[in-house]
Structures are given as structure tokens and as C-alpha cells.
Design brief:
Blueprint: H1 10-13, H2 21-32, H3 38-49, H4 54-81, H5 97-115, H6 122-143, H7 150-168, H8 178-200, H9 206-226, H10 228-231
Keywords: Membrane, Transmembrane, Transmembrane helix
Transmembrane segments: 21-42, 54-78, 99-117, 123-141, 148-166, 178-197, 209-231
């Protein structure tokens, strides 16, 4: 996934943040661990866990990639090329509602496609897409009033989702063995790294980054617990 412009020079978009290697690292982390990069990774991993075929895993990852990554990225990239936003991160929260609504529309399309395919774990995948839509809606509502960190909410939400699967869904990838523990430990470390990056680059205050992290850790897990009966886990 390549943004229209490569990593911006820190002085161009982080003028209020102290410079140096730390700032470069924070900007790089923010672009690499983008909210748009996570859905295909999570969906593919979850379907592999429940024993879906390689074709099924590809379907899940592909749906996440096309509808929840590419469509929003193309729209935000268009806004950037038109000069409507200063960067792909959309630091001005007043500019976030429109791309969020596009993302919600893409979520609806993704859910329709999921319900129309026959793969192992389809019910669980549909629940993940539905939770993604619900949490996107919550972020839309919050960001109209306060600049909560979408980056932090997204990476923490991915970890929360994998933790739910690890604990409640029988399978082979995210089981109680070393592999499952390693994935969750890596996700926890990545969550902390993103929180640091968003604060270090002055994209968010510590409170905004912490709030996003907290929402991501709690909301998806509770939503999936509530949907457990419907998805048969």
C-alpha cells in the first residue's frame, strides 16, 4: 500500500513535534501500521484459524483488502490530490466525517459479499465486518466532538479481535499454544508502539491516544461476546 506521496518530511506535517530520529520513526510507524492495513490481515488470520481452505482465507483477506482498505484509501488519496486535506492521516478532525461515511458504505458492501459466499467461518467473518462497521460509526460520532486516535483504536481493535478468537473460538492458529501467545504478544507490543508514535508525532494528545486504545481493546471484544450465540461460538 503506497500513499500518493511517500513519507512526508516531518517539518511539513509535524511542525509542532520535536525533530530527530524519533519523529521519523513515529511517522513511519503511523504509515506502516495504518488502520487500512489491518482488516485483510485479521480476516485472513481468523479464517485460517477456523480451518478455512486457502481459497476461503483468500476470500476473507481479499474482502478486507478491497472494501476496507483499498476503497477508503483511494477516496482519501483523491482528497489529498485535490488539496482538500493536508495528509493521508487527516489530522483535521472536521475533514474526517466524509471518508468515514465512505468507509461505512464499503463496510455494507463487504458484509453483503461475505453473506453471499460459502467459506468456513462465514458467520464469524460476517460478525467481524459488522463490528468493524459499528466501531467505525462510533468513531464517526466521537470524532465530530473530539479527536480520538483512529490509529490506536484500529490496532488495539485488531488485538482485541484476535484475543476473542484465541479465547472463544476453537482452531489451530490462535490456540493456547506458543503460536497464539506469540501473535497476541506481538499485537500488544504493536499497540504500545502505535500509541507512542501518535503521541510522539503530536498527531494526538496522550489522552486521545489512550482513549482510542481503550476503545479498541474493549469494544470489539464485548461486541463479539454479545454476538457469540449468533455465530455459534
Amino acid at each position: 500500500m503506497s500513499p500518493p506521496n511517500p513519507l512526508p518530511h516531518p517539518a511539513a506535517s509535524q511542525t509542532d513535534a520535536p525533530g530527530g530520529v524519533g519523529l521519523w520513526a513515529a511517522v513511519a510507524v503511523s504509515y506502516v501500521v495504518s488502520p487500512l492495513a489491518l482488516p485483510p490481515l485479521v480476516y485472513g488470520l481468523v479464517l485460517a484459524h477456523v480451518g478455512a481452505s486457502w481459497a476461503g482465507v483468500a476470500w476473507g483477506a481479499g474482502i478486507g483488502l478491497v472494501f476496507l482498505s483499498v476503497v477508503p484509501l483511494v477516496y482519501v488519496g483523491g482528497m489529498r490530490l485535490q488539496g482538500r486535506i493536508a495528509s493521508l492521516e487527516i489530522r483535521d478532525r472536521t475533514k474526517r466525517t466524509e471518508p468515514f461515511l465512505v468507509a461505512l458504505g464499503a463496510n455494507g458492501a463487504a458484509l453483503a459479499v461475505v453473506l453471499g459466499i460459502d467459506v468456513a467461518g462465514r458467520g464469524l467473518l460476517a460478525a467481524l465486518v459488522a463490528c468493524h462497521a459499528l466501531n467505525t460509526t462510533l468513531l464517526v460520532l466521537i470524532t465530530t466532538r473530539w479527536k480520538i486516535s483512529v490509529h490506536c483504536a484500529s490496532v488495539a481493535g485488531a488485538v482485541s479481535t484476535l484475543a476473542f478468537v484465541h479465547r472463544h473460538v476453537p482452531g489451530r492458529v490462535l490456540d493456547a499454544g506458543p503460536a497464539g501467545a506469540a501473535v497476541l504478544a506481538g499485537g500488544a507490543g504493536l499497540t504500545g508502539l502505535v500509541l507512542w508514535a501518535r503521541v510522539r508525532s503530536r498527531a494526538h494528545t496522550p489522552a486521545q491516544a489512550a482513549a482510542g486504545t481503550g476503545m479498541g481493546l474493549v469494544a470489539p471484544y464485548l461486541e463479539l461476546v454479545a454476538l457469540s450465540g449468533a455465530i455459534g461460538v
